[in-house]
Design a protein that fits this description.
Helices cover 37% and strands 21% of the residues. It is globular, with a radius of gyration of 21 Å.
Length: 444
């Protein structure tokens, strides 16, 4: 059954179009854009942002573990994360992931690549229960899911996994593939955690086995060069950086999505752009963890493709991620307008990052066009950040001053799931999340 949605303005790949109706088929796919038919359902509709990197369970960690302990770094934060990860049951995972996904929808994310490495039960027994809890949370909220079960073997370069990592680890590639088989019917990708956690020989074999089983169609995601210590340890063991090691181990191509790449060199960034990989940046989390700044503007200027993710989910807001992306480069270069073109900042930045995100989730999303899912974020015409603006500068005002509070509605597949920040079942979900989070973070 067709649905028709009419808007005063649409942000399309060709730019802003006025007074348009989207014709949406029964599967939630846009069939056509036509001149407006009937009254408007909203003001300005822009493509829903794909969330290219999320660890949903870490939503329960936000605001905990912030006391300073000596020289506080990413690695001390990781210890707090391990404590949380050791306690979560499948029932807890459902509650926490559901809250994270609801907040993603309210924050302008309409699809998510969930980098899922919390696999086994608290007692270490393997099984698909934790992953199925994530799948159920996505189904209950309506967000579009690309599940990325993570292959994780070691606790660092040439180091065995520790007891705190036992829920992450698959002893063999065959064990990992068994999990993929148990998740038959779920949109999947392949996710070697990092070169810290998967050595080059096993990484190469993992990709070969996955391609034999699924063909060359699944997206591949990996953490890379996030921390300086990671780069130093990789150099010490292999005589090269993580990006260099990855490029010599596998054939990089557009299926690859490199998360963070914070400390990639100029030559490495050029290589990644030439190979058409997607670099997935998580600006809020990278600031939260003190990672550093990837030279995103230079990568973009070299033809590189970028996506964003909410990663730790300490704050979930697609608009804020883009603002941090732009402002981080301004601070790095001490120059303005790093992602702007001659027409401004907002339209090109939102559309460009949506394109990269669509590649990362490997689904027909990220654009308002025929053949794409009708995943939409509709802006509130009366929102404060753009009072006094015309339509030509409204998207600039969104990036500079806007937030998820300025979103009037969110649609996934043509279905309205969020209305001025409200969604069905949100209060009950929040109440359950509060109880679970308090319990999970109690001192030992």
């Amino acid at each position: 059954m067709q649905t028709r949605l009419t808007f005063k303005y649409l942000l399309t790949p060709e730019g802003l179009r006025r007074d348009q109706t989207l014709v949406v088929d029964g599967n939630g796919v846009i069939e056509a854009l036509t001149p407006a038919m009937g009254p408007a359902d909203g003001f300005l509709a822009i493509p829903g942002m794909p969330n290219a990197h999320s660890h949903a369970f870490q939503r329960a960690l936000s605001g905990f573990g912030e006391q300073r302990k000596g020289s506080d770094t990413f690695w001390s934060w990781r210890e707090a994360m391990y404590r949380l990860a050791g306690r979560i049951t499948p029932e807890d995972m459902l509650v926490v992931a559901r809250q994270a996904f609801l907040e993603m929808l309210r924050g302008g994310f309409t699809s998510v690549a969930e980098f899922h490495y919390l696999h086994h039960l608290p007692d270490g027994r393997p099984g698909p229960e934790m992953a199925r809890a994530v799948v159920q949370a996505a189904a209950e909220t309506g967000i579009r899911l690309r599940l990325l079960p993570v292959f994780y073997q070691s606790g660092g370069f040439n180091q065995p996994a520790g007891p705190e990592q036992r829920r992450f680890v698959h002893a063999t590639i065959e064990d990992y593939c068994r999990l993929l088989q148990e998740l038959h019917g779920v949109p999947l990708g392949v996710a070697p955690h990092s070169l810290r956690a998967v050595n080059p020989e096993n990484l190469r074999r993992l990709i070969e086995v996955a391609e034999q089983e699924y063909g060359e169609r699944l997206p591949i995601h990996i953490h890379i060069s996030e921390q300086q210590l990671e780069v130093e340890e990789c150099r010490k063991l292999y005589g090269m950086t993580p990006v260099e090691l990855l490029s010599k181990t596998v054939q990089l191509n557009p299926r690859w999505n490199l998360v963070h790449a914070t400390h990639a060199s100029e030559a490495e960034r050029r290589l990644l752009a030439q190979r058409a990989v997607t670099v997935v940046l998580c600006p809020v989390t990278e600031a939260y963890l003190g990672d550093g700044l990837f030279a995103a503007d230079e990568f973009k200027d070299a033809g590189g493709r970028l996506a964003i993710g909410s990663d730790s989910n300490c704050r979930i807001d697609a608009i804020e991620e883009l603002r941090w992306l732009e402002y981080g480069q301004r601070l790095r270069k001490q120059q303005r307008a790093r992602f702007a073109d001659a027409k401004g900042l907002g339209q090109c930045l939102w559309s460009g990052i949506c394109t990269g995100g669509a590649a990362a989730v490997a689904q027909p999303v990220g654009a308002i066009a025929a053949g794409k899912y009708a995943d939409l974020v509709v802006l509130d015409e009366q929102a404060g950040p753009w009072l006094g603006h015309g339509i030509d500068t409204l998207m600039d005002a969104l990036i500079i001053g806007g937030s998820r509070n300025d979103i009037a509605a969110v649609y996934v597949g043509g279905k309205r799931l969020v209305d001025h920040g409200e969604s069905n079942g949100a209060q009950a979900a929040a109440d359950a999340f509060a109880r679970v989070t308090a319990s999970l973070n109690k001192p030992s």
